[in-house]
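Thread: Newbie trying to understand structure tokens

Hi all, I'm a second-year student working on a class project, and my supervisor (Dr. K.) asked me to get a predicted structure for one chain before our next meeting. I've only ever worked with sequences, so writing a 3D structure as a token string is new to me. If someone could post the tokens and maybe explain what I'm looking at, I'd be very grateful. Here's the chain:
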Amino acid sequence: MISYENKTILAPMVRIGTLPMRILALRYGADIVYSEELIDWKFLRSKRRYNDILKTVDYVDQTDGTIVFRTCAEEYGKVVLQLGTCNAERALKVAKLVENDVAAIDINMGCPKEFSIKGGMGVALLGQPDKAYNILNTLVNNLSIPVTCKIRILETPEDTLKLVEKLASSGIKAIAIHGRTKNERPQHAVHTDIIKYVAERLSIPVIANGGSKEIEKYTDIIKFKNLTGCSSVMLARAAEWNCSIFRKDGLLPMDTVIKEYLKLAIDFDNSPSNTKYCIQNVLRELQDTPRGRRFLDCQTLEQICAIWDMDDYCREKQSLYQTLGINGRWQVSPDELQPPNKKFKTTDNENLDDIEQMKVCFIRANFTDLTLPKTELHSWVGKNGYKLPTYETQQVQKLFRTILTFDGKKYTSSFWEKNKKFAEQGAALVCLFSLGLKTREDLINLGSIIK
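---
Reply by user tm_fold:
Sure, no problem. This is what the structure looks like when written as tokens:
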């Protein structure tokens, strides 16, 4: 059973707390790592799958094939799933799904973002203590793993303590307290006095959060812990900026951290967009440098890795995964999706044997408005006196594929896009290739096909 006494913890951070960052934090010395906040209804449309190539457990969204949550043996017993919910029944369904894959369940009661509040989640639950208690108590009574929650302080120490005592009475094993109110932001000072007031009066471990502005090295974590009188400390922005903050031996250079993070992103087949977002938060103001601007132009994992001289490793690993038949985003198709009690909206009556197919994806950032595949194709067609091509788009759940008809022939990409316009552009790329207007090397350089 996971313990919350005397721990340093990676806080739940949206788009940051994915598997590569969690593993990096553990390797640098974190004791516990939290997932990013994951919304209950999104989890409920996912299916558990063991990935025998990556050696991970994947929860796959059955509407578009994306990974909702990925975990592995290295973090077993140390990863806490943070759940965004406002409904005890839905929360329990999710918790039962993941009960054997995570060390604990945490309910987000501290997010002040409009999305959470409108959905009755996050700090909205602090204004409904009975509902918050019911969610926690329902989980405590029906799970074999610990349950916790993360909150923000209220306006006074007394009000905060009253709320925390009610939540603690549900049977939770610990509570994380962010030392700012719902209306305060990182530029505001953290109220360590209120955290300490609660910690001194509560029987379960209190995890202090919100001190990143004052935490620049490992010894600062200990200072913050002593200042708040808490059992443990949870880090968000300090870890986001340089995950080696968890190292007792001191911070590592930024480029070392990025390269070690990138290796994990490659090894765990992390999405390029998520990888890029995490590195952006490491670079911060350095994005406005020649190297930073080059980085911002990247769209594929290989392009990102090239900046840190890791593109060869990235290509080799991706090629290996393709050879082994990895089931990732590139392999997503309607055949892989199994949403219960859903009717597909599809016009898939075409005989695909009569259609020229390639697995090509369209990455918007790699084109200008003047070099878009459709623009290039239509310009060539007009100059050579042909009729413009026509486009018929198929939709299955949140996946799209377009069949392009030109000069009596049909073209399509076998890669299903998550955007109708992108599906049309992908089909145009196939047509351009067939006409000799794009080479295979062009498509590789555009990130549209994998070697």
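A couple of things are worth pointing out once you decode it. The longest strand covers residues 399-406. The radius of gyration is 24 Å. Feel free to ask follow-ups in this thread.
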